[in-house]
UniProtKB/TrEMBL annotation:
Domain of life, per lineage: Eukaryota
Any GO BP annotation: negative regulation of TORC1 signaling
Catalysed conversion reaction: a hydroperoxide + L-cysteinyl-[protein] = S-hydroxy-L-cysteinyl-[protein] + an alcohol
Family classification: Belongs to the sestrin family.
Keywords, sorted A to Z: Cytoplasm, Oxidoreductase
Subcellular location: Cytoplasm
This protein's name: SESN3 protein
Cellular component terms (Gene Ontology): cytoplasm; nucleus
Region (Disordered): 219-246
Organism: Podargus strigoides
One term of GO molecular function: L-leucine binding
Main location: cytoplasm
Secretion signal span: none
Gene that encodes the chain: Sesn3_1
Coiled-coil region: none
């Protein structure tokens, strides 16, 4: 039930991993405006937008451990209207965050008995952005393939066996408190999680053959006409999309559609938007440092500091080898990647020459970044293998960390600006 595959990959950069785990733990398990079961259900909704079974399965188990109503796992039709009303901004933030407006915020805060408080909404928005961005990392680093039963893992784990990365690197970046919490939760829950997982595996094995035949047929039908720039993509093998029947038994499903509305709504190039619908987001007018940080910290105590530390941590990661290969300074190279990601979401920096992006980032790297950022579910093992053949594994993970943080900050900027406009 823990993020072993994710922490193993992030473990190539232990200081960042420490910062990530503190934020993840605070969001999900520490005092905050939202009940614990709702936090995990919001994470399920967010991960489902990108068909990320790895995160959905993880949070289904944690949702049940937190005392969540198994009926909710039947889908959005079975959850309270207050949670269901979050679906619209979940959809927009995941795919076209530039469309969010103060009207979306007002609607959630003004619905009589199902209204959200500002603090609850900020907690929910941070959760949504966190899980959308983490889904990009999961697909980008192959954790989804690692999780699939019988599937071939895309990346090699850093630590041996199934040992939690935190336990394998005690004293090497993770705080002792996090290690203590991790071990205690592991001991408390391993029997329960193993039991749930065994039932899910049995159900999956029974349907595996039928599902494989269906996917093969689907691949043949959809294989033609895939975009050349993005590269051919086949849906990952259908894993377990857990639902629950009336007595709480975990059952399998072949897709995550029950957690989504409007599944066809996806990313579209910002440059092709309707001009009268939205404008370029200028960081000079609303930035994380000058605006977003103080707002989020005021409404959801301390989360601003944790997020800010995480943004600074990824910016401070060493990338001299990457930059040297590209013939530039590390800071220049990282800023090129960061600004390219923000540019895809319509966020512009007036002091940056965007011609540098094409000079710094080769085509295959740009294709990879765009796919992992905008439609991570289309990432496949070949894409990871093809880009930067000469680069180290840790350097590729570094790129995925930049994608995770730049994407999360982009979503937060749009959502927090809309909340600010509502408040004004």
């Amino acid at each position: 039930g823990r993020l072993e595959a994710v922490t193993q990959q992030m473990g190539y950069h232990p200081q960042y991993l420490d910062s990530f785990l503190k934020t993840q733990h605070y969001l999900m398990h520490m005092d905050g405006p939202l009940p614990f079961d709702c936090r995990h259900y919001i994470a399920i909704m967010a991960a489902a937008r990108h068909q990320c079974r790895y995160l959905v399965n993880l949070h289904v188990l944690q949702f049940l451990r937190a005392g969540g109503d198994p009926q909710w796992l039947r889908g959005l039709d079975f959850i309270p209207p207050k949670l269901r009303n979050l679906n619209e901004i979940n959809k927009i933030l995941a795919h076209r965050p530039w469309l969010i407006t103060k009207e979306h915020i007002e609607k959630l805060l003004k619905i009589s008995e199902w209204s959200w408080s500002l603090a609850e909404l900020v907690h929910a928005v941070v959760l949504l952005a966190h899980c959308h961005a983490l889904a990009s990392f999961v697909f980008g680093c192959g954790c989804e393939q690692d999780e699939g039963l019988g599937g071939r893992g895309l990346l090699k784990p850093l630590s041996p066996g199934n040992q939690c990365f935190c336990e394998a690197t005690a004293g090497n970046g993770c705080s002792q408190e996090l290690l203590r919490i991790s071990r205690k939760r592991s001991l408390d829950s391993c029997m329960e999680l193993d039991s749930l997982r065994e039932r899910m595996q049995r159900i999956h094995v029974e349907t595996e053959g039928r599902e494989e035949m269906r996917l093969l047929q689907q691949d043949r039908e959809e294989g033609e006409g895939q975009g050349a720039e993005v590269g051919h993509h086949s849906d990952p093998p259908a894993g377990l999309s857990p639902l629950a029947d009336t007595d709480g038994e975990v059952t399998g499903a072949t897709n995550l559609a029950c957690y989504m509305q409007d599944p066809d709504f996806g990313y579209q190039d910002f440059a092709r938007r309707d001009e009268d619908q939205t404008q370029v987001f200028r960081v000079q007018d609303y930035s994380w440092e000058d605006h977003g940080f103080s707002l989020v910290n005021r409404l959801y105590s301390d989360i601003g500091h944790l997020l800010d530390e995480k943004f600074r941590m990824v910016d401070g990661l060493q990338s001299s080898a990457m930059a040297k290969r590209q013939g530039c300074e590390p800071s220049v190279f990282k800023r090129g990647i960061w600004n390219y990601i923000h540019c895809m979401f319509g966020i512009r920096y007036d002091d940056y020459d965007y011609a540098e992006v094409n000079q710094l980032l080769e085509r295959m790297l740009k294709v990879y970044i765009k796919t992992v950022t905008c439609y991570p579910e289309k990432t496949n093992p070949e894409m990871f293998d093809r880009f930067w053949k000469q680069f180290k594994h840790s350097e590729k993970v570094h790129v995925n960390l930049l994608i995770l943080e730049a994407r999360m900050q982009a979503e937060l900027l749009y959502a927090l600006q809309a909340i600010t406009q509502y408040m004004i």
